Amino acid sequence: MPTLTHELRYALRQLRKSPGFTIVAILTLALGIGANIAVFSVTNAVLLNPSGVPHASGLVALRARYLALADLSNIGISAPDFGDAADGRNIFESAAVLQSGGFNLSRENANPELLRGGKVSSAYFNVFEVKPYLGRGFTAEEDQPGAEHEVVLAWRTWKKHFGSDPNIVGSTVMLNQQSYRVVGVMGPDFNWPNQAELWVPIALPPAQYHDQKYRYNENLGGIARLRPGVTLEQANAYLDMKANQNIQSEGDKSYGRASRWGMFAMPLTEFIGGPLRKPLTMLLIAVGMVLLIACANIAGLQIARASARERELAVRVALGASRSRLVRLALLESILLTVGGLVLGSAVAMATAPLLLHALPQMLGSQIEPSFRGPVLLFVVLIAVICSLLCGVVPAWHRTKPGWFNALQEGSRSGTTSVASQRARSSLVVAQIALSLLLLAGSGLLLSSLEALQRVETGFDPRNVLSASFSLPKSIYDKDEKQAAFFSALEERLRAIPGINSAALVDSIPFSGDGGFASFVIKGQPVPPNDPGPHGGIRLVSADYFETMRVPILLGRTFNDQDRLGSQMVAVVDDVLARQYWPGQNPVGRYLGFDQAKAPWYQIVGIVKHARSSSLEADGNEGFYFLSIVQNPFPGGAVVVRSPQRPESLKTTVAQAVRSVDAGIPIYDVKSMEERVDESLIGRRFVVLLLTTFAGLALLLAALGLYGVISYSVRLRTRELGVRMALGAQRSRVMQMVLMQGARLAAIGIICGVLGAIAFGRIFATLLFNVGMLSAIPWAVAIAALVVVVLLATLLPARRAASIQPMQALRTE
User: Fold this and answer.
1) What does the buried/exposed string (b/e) look like for 360-377 if buried means 16 or more CB atoms within 10 Å of the residue's CB?
2) Which residue pairs from 730-737 have beta carbons closer than 8 angstroms and sit at least 24 positions apart in sequence?
3) Do 345 and 34 form a contact (C-beta atoms < 8 A)?
4) 530, 258 contact by CB (below 8 A)
5) Element containing residue 23 per DSSP (H, E)
6) Is 410 helix (H, G, I), strand (E, B) or coil?
7) What is the pLDDT of residue 541?
8) At what angle do helices 277-308 and 416-454 cross, to 10 degrees?
9) Are strands 198-201 and 110-120 parallel, antiparallel or unpaired?
10) CA 459, CA 551: separation in Å to the nearest integer?
11) What is the pLDDT of residues 273-295, one digit of tens each?
């Protein structure tokens, strides 16, 4: 211990002797470490330990799929699907079902407000292993039809809307114009799904969980906890077995067999992470590369310091210092630098993480609460160990090389140790250049991909359109006639408002993340065996929807005011669906439905241009069919209005129009259509912004590393360069020699970077849209930027070399 304390003090003295090096090294490490901690904290809150879901280990999402239908390969489950899963008591310790929804909260002297929440089965909170902060969860008796008027409040709902009232349990609240009794308040660490603000019992009839007529009606979410010792593979084997039993019970002409239907379980963390998994993983790799560059830079500086101290180290060896002690001293210096970088980097991370969340889509960023506990602390420890080793191993190895006694000889200034030192630093610089090129090219490719997406046509005109959603309480609007009457009355109110050119209703707003797909049948066209039949996106819209969204009508007509309940059911298809299922034919006048043996049949009255519904990179090859929302009403929907005014100015007007039809109905998710389309690209912009930032940081660090190598090389070759100029070498020639040294290192680094891209390009290519991994322009720009930076980093040492005075250099000892 005394020896270690002495060595630690010695290492501190050495760092204090070089304040410039120490400050630069700590700042460099702080940037690299801070970026890694910030990105990992967000990744942990999204992918590993999702915010709002404690005890995520062992939780699985229960999902259904139709492998013959590409867009239905990962969807919700039906009640019988859940019944089959819940029967596997030797597989699942507990299981629950949920259905997301909105609840209109009514209070005295306040406008109604929508709260997002979930209808859940009684075991829901047990599955998550969470206990209420106040009160209790639901009982099995409350999870029954007619007995489901209880509610559990989320922590933030309790604080925001009820002032953290400690006596809230037992009181009543008005939800969807009905009285609900508060039975509990959850703690602040649980709010799933999707930042839920409350939960009520789902109260499905028990028989429905095993009623086969509901088999392919996937409108539920399933969640289960695996029993200790049960693997995900075993759970999926059980679900496969149950699916096969159901398909066999349906006979040879089973729809499940034709569509390749099945059930599966996936880790809840993977389900929640969804499309952010690849981008966040890519960012983790990127900041890891930045950290590698930073560590390589520090290692290079450490080697330079060791080379400058060759005589001192040689004397220590001559006096009996062991190589192990020299190694310990090198590692101790790197540990001290890492500790300094870690402290400063942690502060950088805590300041940066909120900025990362601000750059995420609002719907997602508001759901994430990064924690700097648990896995993040373990990550910090791991980062500290890695940095200490990366910054210290190469310098330590360098100190163990033989030949230190040569440093005591008069002519040893350019001896083997210095040459080895220069080679080691050059290798580190080549690695930095290669990694910097990968980051630069990657950010360029993603930027090109983003530009390609921005050029994609939506199929509608999003300018000057405001959209807003609403929810109709089923307790009030319990019949089709009531829902249809609300839709008709709301349309009339909106049309009558001065300044609104057109208005329409739709079941799900484009680019809102809602909407679904469904199979259908064509009248007089039987489905062949083992064929799942026609399939497409389905939307419910009102008469003026296509006019309001400016979707071109190609043939026939769209809906009108005569398309009412009781009249001939009608449908409109887009041109993609028409080409898919009526190739070379005119589908207008034909009929589609949902069962060859049952009515109703929908007469196709028109064809419209295809419009994208969920994102600019999806929906391109999937056709859509549209039904009248008045003929097919349901308790919910959205309004879209077009006006020459700014869309945001219509928010109050639209809200008043809805309340004039029913004072208890609020609107929510109010946004312009341009905003929705733009938000679909925020995730990509987030990745491009961060990757470009990290690429710039990496390029700066690589430039500093190259500058250090060339400067040190010029210092070592001072006598040689002086002799060359004394013998007649032109200063321009000396400058050219130094520039060529930097160019060689850059060329080797560029070659390594391109080879690395070829080796690992397939992983990155999945993030690109209509851009090849080796697309010429991004790579050319990246290489050009790298060459310019290399030139600037080499130019100053080259000018210094050209300014050497021969006689002074020859007199230098």
Assistant:
1) bbeebbebbebbbeeebe
2) 731/802, 731/803, 732/802, 734/801, 734/802, 734/804, 735/798, 735/799, 735/801, 735/802, 736/798, 737/801
3) yes
4) yes
5) helix 19-43
6) coil
7) 93
8) 160
9) parallel
10) 6
11) 776 777 778 888 888 888 888 88
625 with 553: CB under 8 angstroms?
no
Residues near 410 by beta carbon (within 8 Å), at least 6 away in sequence = none
What separation in angstroms does the CA of 417 have from each of 51, 336, 392? 53, 25, 18
Residues 320, 324, 330, 335, CA torsion sign = negative
As a whole number of angstroms, the distance between CA 518 and CA 218 comes to: 10
List 538's β-bridge partners, or say none: 516, 625
**pTM for this predicted structure:** 0.78
**Three-class DSSP category at 653:** helix
- First CA to last CA distance, the chain: 41
Highest mean pLDDT among 99-103, 313-317, 548-552, 684-688: 548-552
Residue for token digits 């090109």? 448
Cα(678)–Cα(361) distance, integer angstroms: 10
Distances in whole angstroms, Cα of residue 671 to Cα of each of 467, 647, 654: 6, 8, 12
Identify residue 181 by its one-letter amino acid code: R
| Least confident stretch, 2-16, 34-48, 330-344, 613-627 | 2-16
Secondary element (H or E) of residue 360: none
The helix (run of H) or strand (run of E) holding residue 624 is: strand 624-628
Among 235-244, 501-510, 686-695, the least confident range: 686-695
223-244 pLDDT, tens digit per residue, is 999 999 999 999 999 999 999 9
Q: Which position has the token pair 């690395």?
A: 756
The secondary structure of 78-126 as a DSSP string is -HHHHHHHHT-TTTEEEEEEEEEEEEEEEETTEEEEEEEEEEE-TTHHH
Q: How many residues does the chain have?
A: 813
Give the whole-angstrom CA distance, residue 771 versus residue 775. Answer: 7
pLDDT band at 264 (very low <50, low <70, confident <90, very high): very high
In the chain, domain spans? 68-259, 472-664
Tokens of 48: 């590993």
Q: Which residue has the tokens 């590993």?
A: 48
Of 207, 206, 204, 238, give the one whose Cα is nearest residue 219. Answer: 204
For 277, 455, 622, 623, 784, the CA distances from 770, given in Å and listed in that order, are 21, 11, 18, 21, 23
Give every CB contact of residue 368 below 8 A, 6+ residues apart in sequence: 42, 45, 46, 51, 357, 360
DSSP letter at 409 equals: S
Cβ–Cβ under 8 Å, residues 576 and 621? yes
595-638 pLDDT, tens digit per residue, is: 777 778 999 999 999 998 888 876 667 899 999 999 988 888 89
Dig out the tokens for 632 from the structure: 């097919």
Listed residue (550, 658, 492, 113) closest to 650, CA to CA: 658
pLDDT tier at 413 (50, 70, 90 boundaries)? very low
